[in-house]
Design brief:
The protein has 359 residues and is α/β, with parallel strands linked by helices. The protein has two domains: 233 residues, Vaccinia Virus protein VP39 (Rossmann fold, 3-Layer(aba) Sandwich); 107 residues. It is 43% helix and 16% strand. It contains 15 helices and nine strands. The protein has a nine-stranded mixed β-sheet with strand order 1-2-9-8-3-4-6-5-7, with helices on both faces. Helix 5 packs antiparallel against helix 10. It is elongated and about 85 Å long. The protein starts with a strand and ends with a helix. One of its GO terms (molecular function) is N-methyltransferase activity. Its EC number is 2.1.1.-. Keywords: Methyltransferase, Transferase.
């Protein structure tokens, strides 16, 4: 099909195209968030939801889409993909082949169509939910740490500052000739590597230290310092560490910027069960229209202002409207000519709450 590109307003770009073709034209690592609602397969009567012969053919098509979503999503990006309750398990497994699945979110609709079903005619439990698979790239956290260098610098600094205490423990163990297994057994822990090496070093608790002293008691020059003395020395060194770490504040900021955005509070859905009312019927309603509050929650949680959000199954444009409200760039794709025209017009005319106040 012929592709059409429009920019109904600043930072909002929409394509009238088949996303399976359009996605291949987008650059690698070019979007920060993908929030999308592909066909569910034989849930709606529309032709676009019934174009595959069976579930296997549908999932093969979806897998091709997922490859391009994987390719265009930045290493620190997030994916939210809606799916039906019936195919949620198979969809999640498919996504997990390319992405690290973080949550299987259940969208519970209190006022859904389930209330209109004749209960006596049911042959299975009536679906009241849709599912959202939330995922990231494999190794995303390690990418942020490696690129910024903040975590590695902090580890190096900590090992340097606490070297006097680390050496005290390490040298005592070497003199005593005590094995790591014996240390772990004596303290009922697996902490030997944290006490006697610079890797993730920690000060033993009083009880653990006393157990170590008993283990080393046959050696006159073993662990002979009082735990209170060690605690005071640790406190002094820790204050030095905190002061020196401030030199790495720029790296810390860079590290935080490279991490996958995610921010929730007690005032928004922060578990994997979400309650949002579905969009009620109105003339011209898209058959799969998602509520704006739900899409706003996704965008506000997993994107920062100025980031690029992609919805390759744009539909009514709820994701785009959330981006307009939150100051994100948006790229959307819609194959249906009529839906595309209506959505592009709706986006051009859309007014945020602030814009409505100025009218």
């Amino acid at each position: 099909m012929t592709q059409k590109k429009l920019e109904p307003r600043k930072n909002i770009t929409v394509f009238n195209a088949d996303c399976s073709q359009l996605l291949k034209t987008l650059p690698d690592n070019s979007v920060d968030l993908i929030a999308t609602d592909p066909p569910y397969f034989r849930v709606k009567q529309d032709a676009w939801d019934n174009q595959w012969d069976d579930e296997a053919e549908f999932l093969a098509w979806l897998d091709d889409i997922l490859f391009d979503l994987w390719r265009v999503l930045k290493p620190s990006g997030s994916l939210y993909l809606f799916c039906s309750d019936r195919l949620a398990a198979r969809t999640e497994v498919l996504i997990a082949e390319r992405f690290n699945v973080l949550n299987h979110i259940v969208w519970r609709k209190e006022n859904g169509v389930h209330k209109r079903h004749r209960k006596e005619g049911l042959r299975r439990f009536c679906p009241q939910t849709e599912r959202i698979i939330f995922a990231e790239h494999y190794g995303a956290e390690g990418f942020a740490k490696g690129r910024a260098g903040y975590a590695e610098k902090c580890r190096e600094l900590k090992a340097q500052v606490f070297e006097p205490l680390i050496a005290y423990f390490r040298e005592a163990k070497e003199r005593a000739g005590v094995s790591s297994k014996a240390v772990n057994e004596a303290t009922s822990t697996q902490m030997c590597s944290h006490w006697f090496t610079s890797s993730q070093w920690k000060l033993p608790t009083r009880e653990q230290y006393e157990a170590l002293q008993r283990l080393f008691s046959d050696h006159a020059d073993g662990l002979n310092k009082d735990h209170q003395q060690l605690t005071e020395e640790y406190g002094q060194l820790h204050r030095t560490y905190v002061e020196l770490r401030r030199d790495y504040d720029d790296l810390r900021v860079q590290y935080e910027q490279l991490r996958r955005p995610f921010g929730v509070t007690a005032d928004v859905p922060y578990t994997d069960a979400w309650d949002f009312d579905p969009v009620q019927y109105y003339p011209g309603k898209h058959p799969c229209e998602k509520p704006l509050p739900l899409m706003r929650h996704i965008v506000s949680t997993s994107a920062r202002e100025g980031m690029v959000v992609l919805d390759p199954f744009m539909g009514s444009g709820a994701t785009a409207k959330a981006c307009i409200e939150l100051g994100c760039h948006f790229v959307g794709v819609e194959m249906d000519d009529d839906i595309f025209s209506a959505t592009a017009k709706s986006l051009a005319e859309y007014k945020t709450e602030e814009e409505q106040k100025d009218i």
